[in-house]
Specification:
31 strands, nine-stranded mixed beta sheet, alpha+beta, 28% strand, 3 domains, YbaK protein, Rossmann fold, BirA Bifunctional Protein, domain 2, five-stranded mixed beta sheet, RNA-binding
Length: 572
RNA sequence: CGGAGCGUAGCUCAGCCUGGUAGAGCACUUGGUUUGGGACCAAGACGUCGCAGGUUCAAAUCCUGUCGCUCCGACCA
């Protein structure tokens, strides 16, 4: 390809809209342009990188035995009604109407469609297992699109769905995808780590996310250096808080005491009260499906909303307003407690089990209770884990201190079970002639996000540093003079032809620009291999080989093609 | 959805407070000089100042509304 024949609009200045390095570089290197918030056009270079990621995904999915299909992006709401997700996933659904005023939606994912297909086509255990995948544009009404391709209203996703006859066989399918994902991200040059994850609105039994460590990531991963434990903060557990909860026998009487103006944990921990946060019970009031619930946590703990949603079994959860709270408890936030509360469900964190000598709000502004015993004074209706793990807490498996790292989620594998197959009637007859629901798994990769994650993880002050596997072009030929018929251009064209014939993705920078402009652009775009051809070195029978980020090496003209081919082979 | 900020040339921004001829740099066009790390000189083209309404002799500037974009938050009582 000739540079002047393609379209690479590089930018010297950073567009004001971009915040993180990868987003800035996608724009500056001429890979994408924004149409509007959360919607982007892929330019020729962006398409090439994207196709390379897709190619790797296809090869590994095919290798793992999955079959490529292509489903409609436009979907009827009826199948979402059946699965129950018309309500539970309503926040992310793009809905529209046709001329007859019938409602449709743009697919954010395809469990309903594929399960409907399988329900009609697969009737016997002899037809299982099956794994269907597609690479397709998804639509999600994101609460806040940001960071370019990282979180967009429209994005390209690889989604796969496995169907098995038994739970054990479904586990095999799950493991195949898990292994395929490990290979895919490695081939993309990404350090991606699998972590235990929350299943969220997808439902299902358990899941793993593939996380790319990055300070700009939107997720937090808890991991242990002592063993292999790693989990999304939304799901992570530890051996417990660093300071144990008091469980001394409850002897002292419950006692109300005045705390005028005290409405925070910190204020109660300070003079003159001096009640340490770990001796306080924090009382939160939430609305779950429009019904009030109390959530009790230890004062130094933080509520993990994902765990709350998982326990309550509904995604429609929000903190109650001060008015709603006052209406139910006759007190304002800061003076709340569960002592004597019997009319509302009380969900307490397990850290408070058998807690004694605790202090909590008295449901009367300006008063707290001390000497609270959980067993004696609280009517807890549900015990569960609601707290977020903190850095340094002991690993539940091996006892080593846990660490936390921000990360970008690039892939997610779910063991779904029979939730969708039952609701959408994907049954088959087993070898005993008995009707069974297919056991499902689903597996997603954010293809466009993966492409951006590669840049986020691999760049420097000058631009992108593409791994050869996903670079838009592998080799950039940089003649320092483009005089037609001159020795420099003649050699550039010869090398271009030879490399293309050898199947190398090569671009020839035939622009009549000063060398500095060409060097800067090649580094901004991030081609892995650059071959500089100038009169000075050519006089010595040499060209200049430079890998992105590496040293410039003179190479005899006759050896350059072999050297380039060697570099490419070494990267595979 | 709440809060904050910003909408002026293709891009980055100044001008707005204190109303009176719409600007700079980059990019673009033409000519010339340059030519190994984002050149220089000269000339030129490019704007309904997001949109709508209002105040005023006069609005990019003041007021109201609206749309869009960016960031923070939407958990810690």
């Amino acid at each position: 390809m000739l540079w002047t024949h393609t379209f690479i609009p590089t930018l010297k200045e950073t567009p004001a809209e971009a915040e993180i390095a990868s987003h800035k570089l996608l724009l500056r290197a001429g890979l994408i342009r924004k149409l509007t918030g959360g919607l982007y056009t892929f330019l020729p270079l962006g398409v090439r990188a994207l196709r390379k990621v897709e190619k790797i995904v296809r090869e590994e999915m095919n290798r793992a035995g999955a079959l490529e299909v292509l489903m409609p992006a436009l979907q009827p709401p009826e199948i979402w009604e059946k699965s129950g997700r018309l309500v539970t996933a309503s926040d992310v659904l793009f809905k529209l109407r046709d001329r007859a005023k019938k409602e449709w939606l743009l697919g954010p994912t395809h469990e309903e469609v594929i399960t409907t297909l399988v329900a009609g086509e697969i009737n016997s255990y002899r037809q299982l297992p099956r794994n269907f995948y597609q690479i397709q544009t998804k639509f999600r009404d994101e609460i806040r699109p940001r960071f370019g391709l990282m979180r967009a209203k429209e994005f390209i996703m690889k989604d796969a769905y496995s169907f098995d006859a038994t739970d054990e066989l479904a586990q095999v399918s799950y493991q195949k995808m898990y292994d395929a994902y490990t290979r895919i991200f490695a081939r993309c040059g990404l350090k991606a780590l699998p972590v235990e994850a929350d299943t969220g609105v997808m439902g299902g039994k358990f899941s793993h996310e593939f996380m790319v460590p990055a300070e700009t990531g939107e997720n937090e991963v808890v991991y242990c250096d002592g063993c292999r434990y790693a989990a999304n903060l939304e799901k992570a557990v530890s051996a417990g808080p660093a300071v144990a909860t008091s469980t001394a026998p409850a002897t002292a009487e419950l006692e109300k005491f005045p705390t005028p103006g005290v409405v925070t944990i910190d204020a109660l921990a300070a003079a003159p009260y001096l009640v340490p946060a770990e001796r306080q019970i924090k009382t939160l009031v939430y609305l779950a499906d429009s019904k009030l619930v109390l959530i009790l946590l230890r004062g130094d703990d933080q509520l993990n909303e994902a765990k709350l949603v998982a326990t309550l079994g509904t995604p429609h959860v929000r903190p109650a307003s001060a008015e709603e709270i006052f209406g139910a408890l006759s007190a304002h936030p800061g003076s709340l407690g569960a002592v004597g509360v019997t009319t509302l469900p009380v969900y307490a964190d397990t850290v408070l089990t058998n807690a004694t000598e605790m202090t909590t709000g008295a449901n009367e502004d300006g008063f707290h209770f001390r000497n609270v015993s959980a067993a004696r004074d609280l009517k807890v209706t549900h015990w569960a884990d609601f707290r977020s793990v903190k850095v340094g807490e002991a690993c539940a498996k091996c006892g080593q201190p846990l660490k936390i790292q921000r990360a970008i989620e690039v892939g997610h594998v779910f063991k779904l079970g029979t939730k969708y197959s039952e609701k959408l009637s994907a049954y088959f007859l087993d070898e005993n002639g008995k009707q069974q629901p297919a056991v499902m798994g689903c597996y997603g990769i954010g293809v466009t996000r993966t492409m951006q994650a590669v840049i986020e993880q691999s760049h420097d002050k000058d631009g992108v540093i593409w791994p050869i596997s996903v670079a838009p072009y592998t080799v950039c030929l940089t003649p320092l003079s483009v005089t037609p018929g001159g020795p420099v251009m003649a050699l550039a064209e010869k090398l271009h032809a030879e490399l293309e014939a050898a199947g190398v993705d090569v671009i020839l920078d035939d622009r009549d620009e000063r060398p500095g402009v060409k060097f800067k652009d090649s580094e901004l775009v991030g081609f892995p291999i650059r071959v500089g051809i100038g009169e000075k070195s050519l006089a010595k029978g040499e060209v200049e080989l430079k890998t992105r980020g590496g040293q410039l090496v003179p190479v005899p003209v006759g050896e350059i093609v072999a050297r380039v081919m060697g570099l490419i082979a070494a990267a595979q």
